[in-house]
Design goal:
8 strands, single chain, 4-stranded antiparallel sheet, alpha+beta
Amino acid sequence: PAVKGEAVVSTQSTGEITCARKIKKFFTGDLNAPVVSYPPFPGTEINYLRAQIARISAGTHICPIDYRKFEDGDEDDSMAEGRDECVLNPEYEPLSIEELVDPELRNWVHHVLHILPQGRCKWVNPAVKGEAEDFEDEEEEEEEEGLDEIQEEEGPPLLNPISQDANVDGFPAWSACRSSDLVPQYSIAFLRSNAWPGAYAYGIDKKVENVYIGWGQKYSSENYSPVPPPPVMQEYFADLETTEIPDPTVEEEKALEAMQQEQLEREAEEAEMEDDEDDED
């Protein structure tokens, strides 16, 4: 269902994106509706919507090669890794329709960064702390050094050809074709994403756009199965302090009371004998 009225979609967090990758929920149209799922989604439908928009945009925003370029001073495309911005190329020479619908998909590139498994486009080391924080002893420094050894996540660089996208069940990630074969002189080139059904890109001359009309779900050939819950925790370690002792019987209670009474009488007699000895002295 469509969302009624205007709505301001908030920014997303890494937790929302990582959780959205593990669930499948259709939208109700109520941005304040809870997202009932497992794992529990950290937010309402407006947060889930924002997470899906980020995932779709990162995976399906494409443009013809040379339509965008790195900013001035970054002319060497071989150093594309580490860059996170590109701008429109005013000197772009439009490609022909035949080149745009080339089944090899070599003439289209991604112009939005890929989202890493961490849920970010740019990797952040979770072990790194602020410069103002000091460690109190050497043990903490050693622990911090161990955390710094976390392997950095890497994704495809910006302006990476879509021909290098992972296949979808043995098929290319994109399908390219003309809008019409009957009047090819008036047709435009468009590409359909096979990973995100409903995502399209079209181009003709210097006009290039990306659109999405879908259910907000990524393609999957297998039936969806929720993430299994964590394994049941083991029982607490049993010892004398935690093991329950069976209740004594009536006979055992009476025997204990008799033994305690005898002990009290014996202690009283010993105390009297000590007092008599003191009096004689």
